[in-house]
Design goal:
The structure holds 2 protein chains of 2 kinds. Chain A is an alpha/beta fold. Chain A contains 17 helices and 22 strands. Chain A is about 35% helix and about 25% strand. In chain A, strands 6-9-10-3-11-12 form a 6-stranded mixed beta sheet, with helices on both faces. In chain A, α6 links the parallel β9 and β10. In chain A, α14 packs parallel to α15. Chain B is mainly alpha-helical. Helices cover about 70% and strands about 0% of the residues of chain B. Chain B has 14 helices and 2 strands, in the order ααααααβαααααβααα. Chain B has a two-stranded antiparallel sheet. The radius of gyration of chain B is 21 Å and the shape is globular. The chains are: A alpha/beta, B mainly alpha. The interface between A and B is large, with 65 and 42 residues.
């Protein structure tokens, strides 16, 4: 195979940090190269250099054997490099076609040729096997469909021969991932070289030909996927072996008392007759596709969104929860899926965030806040949850994803919540830190907290849950025992009542 | 010269901790530096103020006199009081355009209570402040419970208050000449040479600063401005707090109304429009972000002083009033630009 991209000895420093130090990367035509590394390993810096956002300090980049200078995003595009960022860069109020050809609309003089635009988009989408109408508004599409639009946009530049995808599946469901992979494979067959960044090992297994590992800004190595075990890759990433699994939690959690139950929960938009029970010391996994109604269930339980019917029972007593403030009074804490948008005040410090749900405990006369107390509480959790931070005064923005998640957990522990609802607790967290979070969930359950864990990563659900509730299309389609469940059974339940997706 | 000071303000973020656009490891001192950065911004505003004082002392012959300095302070009082109140609203990410005319309405109501109804001085003053609180509460209700955008809700209130002030007063000024002791609320001297209005300003600033930094209300102000949804999901009834914060700003508006009326010894129903923008400008110059989540009362106080020193100094240098307004406008521009620059640096951080 011919080499399309070669990166030789790239270094890039920022004040105080050497982000990249002598990094190599080689990409062949028609290959999917996985690029992995923990947060801070330098993946995104490398990608930003390739897409012309940063300039490198030293090193060489060769495309098709010729040394090139990537002076800016436009230059990268002209050289045939397209990048799909983790965050979508689409305009929700424009149509699919308008988004794909933004700034390159066919026109006669000052007049836009909307018909031609749509026709051209139609051809592009058909060619890629994406079933979407060019005239749909992007804001109405699912995240996965938007992802498709991003890919179509990247490939609408005819020169594109290198496609960089930064965690493309972080926000889409399993079945949508399948569609995405089909697309990636067809691109590969056409000779496009693809750099695929992801944290999900099982995905890399499915899609990647080779894997390149970075750690702390340094090149660790490149291996063919068939020749390495998952453990090898993880060891390369973290520079050490991960500790073995912890011992299974005590048997028989199902016989313990029910501390929390939901009966016949329905909402106007989606949920229908959702019921389940939660025991003390139990982790109840919630599996299902994106849009199955798991997050909606959580939000309805805590009163963030209104329920149209149903009852919530806490410690055997039916309670009416009209908002998150009432939920907290009943000891129910919700750790949202989107930590940064819904869980944290990024600009504020650790103590501020930890104290958020339990300010009442630190209230002095006249509403004065005892800040010494909030710091002491924060310090206690920094220690007990092993939060890596210089101090309780550090801005949360500067912590890694895993440690940010721990801050959110500390917030609810400080409030003494007995029922904790975790929504995608390990999303965007790197492998090493994920283990930490798993361990923490396990410890919390062992201490007698009742935990609901919503997750789209089946291995995670299977590994941690005592029991698993599977949802589909707003309904509970099955409740499984943790040890009796496997991926196939869950997927079958998760896709019940669903028409095969158009995409 | 002033411009060079302004430049200094604009480039202030470069002196902050390097917010390197790198994938920072979990540890490291950037958190501490960020806190320092906010302090630096205040320090810089303060430096600008001192620089302005020095400049005008040299350039304007009559600038550095006790009477002029005291008049600068007096002219800061009303804007400063409004600005202290609205700092809270702006930190929540909101805005209050009704400050100016609401203040006027409070003046007029105080006037009517004291001259027409004949209430004793203290009750009349309390009535004016209560009117301010009510206006603030209505703003807060509209924003928090009816979910109106703050800009629109307070724009509407601005017009309503302006109209009501004219209607209630019959479009004529109300004079307090017969109300004994009213003018000394602002112009009396509990401390020698310092008008009471100035004491009220500093007193309120201290109270405001303590509320913002030391109480739950202050904590909620920052929290809501940082991330309202996260605050709500933390089990906090954010609507109630937003209502309280706007009400608090309304109280400050009421106090400003009384102080202004007392200083003029009359309630002028035509006055008021434009005060809100000056107050907001003072808040922004003081380093409070219009996007919410950060800011301080000390900064606001310095911002208000910068504005009045600038206006006073330019006047003493016999610059035409029209140009004074232009300069203030430019200063606001520079301050917002500086804030943006800081923000862009802060958000330049890459992630994997």
């Amino acid at each position: 195979m011919t080499q399309v991209l070669k990166v030789e000895g790239i270094s890039k420093g920022f004040p105080g940090v050497q982000a990249l130090d002598d990094v190599h990367l080689e990409l062949d035509r028609g290959e999917v190269l996985a690029l992995v590394g923990e947060n801070g390993a330098g993946k995104s810096t490398l990608m930003k250099i390739l897409s012309g956002i940063y300039r490198m300090d030293s090193g060489r980049i060769l495309i098709d054997g010729d040394e090139v200078d990537i002076a800016g995003p436009k230059a990268a595009q002209d050289l045939g490099i397209s990048i799909i960022h983790q965050e979508m860069n689409l305009m929700p109020h424009l149509t699919v076609a308008q988004n794909i050809y933004i700034g390159r609309e066919p026109r006669t003089g000052p007049w836009l040729q909307e018909a031609k635009l749509n026709r051209r988009t139609r051809e592009l989408l058909d060619d890629l096997g994406i079933h979407l109408s060019p005239k749909r508004l992007v804001g109405e599409l699912t995240v996965a469909q938007q992802q498709m639009v991003e890919i179509a946009k990247a490939l609408s530049f005819e020169r594109t021969k290198i496609l960089i995808m930064d965690e493309p599946t972080s926000a889409i469901s399993l079945s949508e991932t399948e569609v995405l992979f089909r697309l990636i494979r067809s691109l590969r067959d056409r000779g496009v070289g693809i750099v695929y960044i992801s944290h999900r090992m099982e995905e890399l297994r499915q899609i990647a030909d080779r894997v390149t590992v970075l750690r702390d800004g340094q090149y660790v190595g490149t291996r063919p996927m068939e020749e390495v075990e998952d453990g090898d890759i993880i060891a390369m990433m973290v520079g050490r072996e991960l500790s073995a699994k912890w011992e299974a939690r005590l048997e028989g959690t199902a016989e313990r008392e029910v501390v929390f139950a939901v009966r016949g929960l329905s909402t106007k938009a989606l949920l229908q007759d959702v019921s389940f029970e939660l025991h003390r010391g139990e982790i109840l996994g919630f599996a299902g596709l994106i849009g199955a109604g798991r997050t909606e269930t959580a939000r309805a339980i805590i009163g963030a969104d209104p329920m149209s019917a149903g009852a919530v029972v806490v410690n055997g007593r039916e309670v009416r929860i009209t908002g998150p403030d009432v939920a907290v009074k009943h000891g129910i804490g919700y750790l949202p899926e989107d930590r940064k948008r819904h869980g944290l005040m990024l600009e504020q410090d650790v103590a501020f965030n930890v104290a958020m749900a339990s300010l009442r405990d630190s209230r002095g006369p006249l509403g004065v806040l005892r800040q010494g107390r909030t710091r002491k509480v924060a310090d206690r959790f920094i220690q007990s949850l092993r939060i890596k931070t210089p101090s309780s005064r550090s801005t949360v923005k500067n912590l890694s994803g895993g440690n940010q998640q721990k801050v959110v957990i500390a917030k609810w522990l400080a409030r003494n919540c007995d029922v904790l609802i975790f929504d995608e607790p390990t999303r965007g967290i790197d492998v090493g830190a994920k283990e930490e979070i798993y361990k923490l969930l396990h410890e919390l359950a062992t201490q007698g907290k009742a935990i609901i864990m919503i997750s789209s990563e089946l291995p995670e659900v299977l590994r941690l849950s005592d029991r698993i509730v599977v949802m589909s299309e707003g309904r509970v389609t099955g409740t499984l025992n943790g040890d009796g469940a496997d991926q196939e059974t869950i997927m079958k339940l998760a896709t019940q009542n669903i028409e095969v997706e158009a995409a | 010269m002033t411009q060079s000071k302004a430049d200094e303000l604009a480039t202030s973020p470069t002196t902050e901790a390097p917010r390197a656009p790198v994938e920072a490891p979990a540890t490291g001192g950037r958190g501490r530096f960020a806190a320092l950065g906010q302090g630096l911004q205040q320090l810089l505003a303060f430096g600008t103020l001192i620089a302005l004082l020095i400049f005008f002392s040299i350039a304007g012959a009559n600038f550095l006199t006790v009477s002029n300095l005291s008049s600068i302070l007096l002219s800061t009082a009303v804007i400063g009081i409004l600005a202290v109140g609205t700092t809270f609203v702006i930190i929540t990410g909101g805005i209050d355009l009704s400050l100016g005319t609401a203040m006027t309405l409070c003046s007029v109501i105080t006037g009517l209570l004291l001259t027409k109804v004949g209430l004793p001085l203290s009750l009349g003053v309390l009535g004016g402040i209560a009117a301010g609180a009510l206006i603030g509460a209505i703003n807060g209700f509209n924003v928090a419970y009816l979910r109106l955008p703050p800009f629109i809700a307070t724009l509407a209130m601005m017009l309503v208050a302006q109209g009501l002030a004219l209607v209630l007063s019959g479009v004529k000024p109300i004079y307090f000449s017969k109300v004994e002791g009213f003018s000394s609320i602002s112009l009396g001297n509990i401390l020698p040479r310092i008008p009471n209005a100035v004491l009220i300003l500093f007193g309120l600033a201290i109270v405001g600063g303590v509320i913002l930094r030391k109480t739950i209300l202050g904590r909620m102000t920052y929290a809501i401005g940082s991330n309202e949804e996260a605050t709500r999901l933390s089990g906090i009834n954010t609507r109630r707090w937003v209502l309280a914060i706007y009400t608090l700003a309304g109280v400050a508006t009421g106090i400003a109304g009384v102080v202004l009326a007392s200083r003029l010894n009359s309630a002028q129903p035509q006055l008021g429009v434009g005060y809100e923008l000056q107050a907001i400008a003072a808040v922004i110059i003081g380093g409070t972000s219009l996007l919410g989540g950060r800011g301080s009362i000390l900064g606001t106080l310095i911002g208000a002083l910068i504005m009045s020193v600038l206006i006073n100094g330019l006047r003493i240098m016999a610059i035409q009033p029209e140009w004074q307004t232009v300069v203030v406008g430019l200063v606001v521009l520079v301050a917002v630009f500086a804030d943006n620059l800081r923000k862009r640096r802060a958000e330049g951080g890459g992630r994997v």
